[in-house]
Structures are given as C-alpha cells and as structure tokens.
C-alpha cells in the first residue's frame, strides 16, 4: 500500500495522537478545498412516501429519463443510477431508492415489481383490513413485502464497502424510532452502516412500517415505524446528511454545492383546511380505525408540501433557485388510497400522472439538462 492510498488511523502513542488528529483534520474531505473545487457537483434525488401512489413517482422518473436522452442528444435512455450521485427515499420512496440505487434495477423492472408488490401486500377487502387494524394495529402483514424484496436482494446487507461500485449509487432510507419519534437513516455507505450490517430486507421493512398499514419492525432492539411519520418528504433530511460525517461527499454547504436537487412526490391530495381531518393532531399511537388512517394521510401530505416550500425557499434564498426541482402530481390522486392496488386504481394513477407530466414539459426539459450522465458513464 503506497502513501497516497494509505488511510490514516489513530494510534495511542505518546505525542502521536495530536499529530494524527491534525493529519485527519487537514486531509478530511471538508478541509480539502482544492479537492472540493475540482470534483463534479453532486446530483441528488429525493423520493417521498405514498403507498401505491409511488407508481406516480416511477412514471415521473421515466419521463425525466426520456427527457435526459432527448435534451442531451443521447443514443440511449439512461437510468436514474446513471444520472444521480445520491438517492434517498421515505416509505414507498425508500423502496424505489433501494431498487434503483442499491440493487441496480431499471425503472421498467421497478414498475413491474411495484405492481407485484401491490397485488401481494394490499390484498383483502376493506372489512377485513378494518378488523385487522383494530385487532393488531395494522391493516396488512409485512410477509408479502419481505418476500418481494428478498427475491431481489437475497440476504445482502444494505451497506456496501464501495457504495458507488458496480453502477450503484449511495442510498439512504428514512425510518422513525417508535419510542423517541426521532428520524433515522439506514445507509448503504459510511462507518455506522458497516457496523450495523442491516439487511436490505430489514431496511425496506423499517422505512415502510406505517403503523396503520404494516407492523413496526425491531432491529438491534430499536422499534422502527414508517419514516412518513417524521419526514415523508426527506429533502431537509438529505441536506443535513450531505453535510454530515457519514456522508459520502461531506459538503460544507449542501444548498450551495449540489449541482441539482430533484424531489419527487407521490401526489398532493386535496382537503378542506377547516375539516376535522386537517385539524386533528395525529401520532403513530392510538390508531384504531380507517378514519384515523385517513387523517394521518392528510397530515403526511400537508407536511410533505411544507417541507417542499421550506427547501425551495432555502435554494431561492441562496440564489440557486434553478438547481431545485420538485415534481408532484397536484390533483387527481386524492381519490386513491395509499393501499388501493387494484387494476383500476393503477390505471387511474398512470392516467393522472401522464396528464400532469404534459403540464410540466418545460420544467422536465430544464431539469434534464442538469442531470446528464457523467462522461465516464
């Protein structure tokens, strides 16, 4: 191993600790400004949660990738893993993030798996789901979800020694501790993820464990529920993560340094701001009816849009409004329940998303110019 590639490490010898800490400081990614100036600005993809409406996210990504091909005169249609340097998702968005970023699935494969997922995990009539919700605290068991993910990932851990190897992209999924309510990131990168050795299946279950739909999951003694209860839109979480010690890029100021930040939602349901559903304070505990589940969906959707407005403001305030792009079907999906997966619902999601995309052509074209695949790809 030569000096250029040797990694610094701490040895507790007299007088050695201070000098080695000094070496670490001056050779850390944050301190090496010359390296920061020379490397390409990272392109970031964030995916909201939204149950079966996550199909809309996949359709949006497909159209964006088509525009990347057209706007950049490519002779192929790229996949998101070729256009983004970091992908994070919550709940359904977390599943999509793992599929396209960690497991290297194409969007076509992802959509097929998503439809299979819907058929396997959202089965049973509404009366059966209500009974299960009251008796067990969730409408569905997680066995079908685990089986589908396991069929793609086997026993693999989420962490990779080189998160960018084999065409993969550093990936994180958001979950929430049921005990403390604190958000938690399951990562495919970093020292912490390596020590946890969390499986792909467990990470997907943790980010998808919505109390009203799936039971919580316990990993290393900590009980996790769906990240949607904390950050269904993970954009703000990602901006913090990009500046953290665990980040694969460790930016000093994420808003100022990212090359493009794309946030994709799973539809904005309409609702009456004066209704009881909007005013109710919902927590992951004490849910005993489908009505309570609906109230939670309203609150999650509201928080999603609020997070978008906050992140949008941060980019505008930094004079970088053109870097931030948000795509989220603005109307038409409010009639689709998060766990409604019959063929009519899927067709409706596809049709409404298609209509939305037609209205977003200019924005898609502008975004596509910013996420052109790297020359090395």
Which outline best applies?
globular
Q: Could you state the oligomeric state of the chains shown? A: single chain
Number of strands: 8
Highest-level CATH class: Alpha Beta
Q: Strand share of the residues?
A: 5-15%
* Largest sheet composition: 8 strands, mixed
CATH 4th-level superfamily: Cytosolic phospholipase A2 catalytic domain
CATH topology: Cytosolic phospholipase A2 catalytic domain
Structural notes for this entry:
The chain is of the alpha/beta class. The protein has one domain (41-370): Cytosolic phospholipase A2 catalytic domain (3-Layer(aba) Sandwich). It has 17 helices and 8 strands. The protein has helices at 16-27, 33-38, 54-71, 80-83, 92-102, 107-121, 126-136, 143-153, 191-196, 200-208, 228-231, 235-241, 254-257, 276-279, 290-317, 343-358, 361-370, and strands at 43-47, 86-90, 171-177, 183-187, 217-219, 222-226, 260-264, 324-327. Strands 1, 2, 3, 4, 5, 6, 7 and 8 form an 8-stranded mixed β-sheet that branches. Strand 3 and strand 4 form a beta hairpin. The radius of gyration is 21 Å and the shape is globular. The chain starts with 15 loop residues before the first helix and ends in a 7-residue tail after the last helix. Mean pLDDT is 75; it is low at 1-36, 123-140, 210-215, 224-229 and 271-296.
């Amino acid at each position: 191993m030569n000096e250029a590639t040797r990694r610094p490490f701490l040895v507790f010898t007299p007088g050695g600790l201070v000098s080695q800490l000094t070496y670490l400081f001056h050779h850390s990614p944050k301190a090496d400004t010359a390296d920061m100036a020379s490397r390409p600005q990272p392109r970031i993809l964030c995916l909201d949660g939204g149950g079966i409406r996550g199909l809309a996210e996949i359709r949006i990504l497909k159209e964006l990738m088509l525009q990347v091909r057209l706007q950049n005169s490519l002779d192929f249609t790229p996949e998101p893993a070729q256009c983004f340097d970091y992908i994070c998702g919550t709940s359904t968005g977390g599943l999509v993030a793992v599929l396209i970023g960690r497991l290297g699935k194409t969007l076509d494969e992802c959509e097929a798996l998503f439809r299979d997922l819907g058929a396997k995990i959202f089965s049973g009539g509404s009366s059966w789901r209500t009974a299960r919700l009251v008796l067990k605290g969730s409408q569905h068991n997680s066995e079908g979800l685990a089986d589908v993910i396991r069929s793609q990932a086997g026993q693999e851990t989420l962490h990779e020694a080189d998160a960018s190897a084999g065409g993969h992209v550093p990936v994180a999924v958001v979950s929430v501790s049921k005990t403390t309510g604190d958000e938690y990131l399951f990562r495919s990168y970093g020292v912490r993820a390596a020590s946890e050795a969390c499986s792909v299946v467990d990470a997907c279950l943790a980010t998808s464990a919505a109390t009203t739909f799936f039971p919580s999951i316990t990993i290393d003694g900590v009980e996790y529920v769906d990240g949607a209860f904390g950050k269904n839109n993970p954009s703000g979480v990602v901006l913090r993560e990009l500046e953290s010690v665990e980040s694969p890029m460790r930016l000093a100021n994420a808003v100022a340094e990212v090359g493009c930040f794309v946030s994709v939602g799973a539809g904005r349901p309409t609702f009456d701001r004066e209704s009881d559903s909007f005013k109710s304070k919902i927590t992951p505990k004490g849910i005993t009816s489908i009505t309570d589940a609906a109230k939670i969906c309203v609150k999650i959707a509201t928080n999603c849009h609020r997070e978008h407005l906050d992140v949008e403001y941060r980019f505008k305030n930094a004079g970088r409004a053109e870097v931030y792009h948000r795509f989220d079907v603005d109307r038409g999906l409010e009639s689709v329940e998060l766990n409604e997966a019959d063929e009519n619902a899927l067709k409706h999601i596809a049709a409404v998303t298609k209509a939305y995309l037609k209205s977003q052509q200019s924005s898609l074209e502008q975004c596509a110019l910013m996420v052109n695949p790297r020359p090395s790809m």
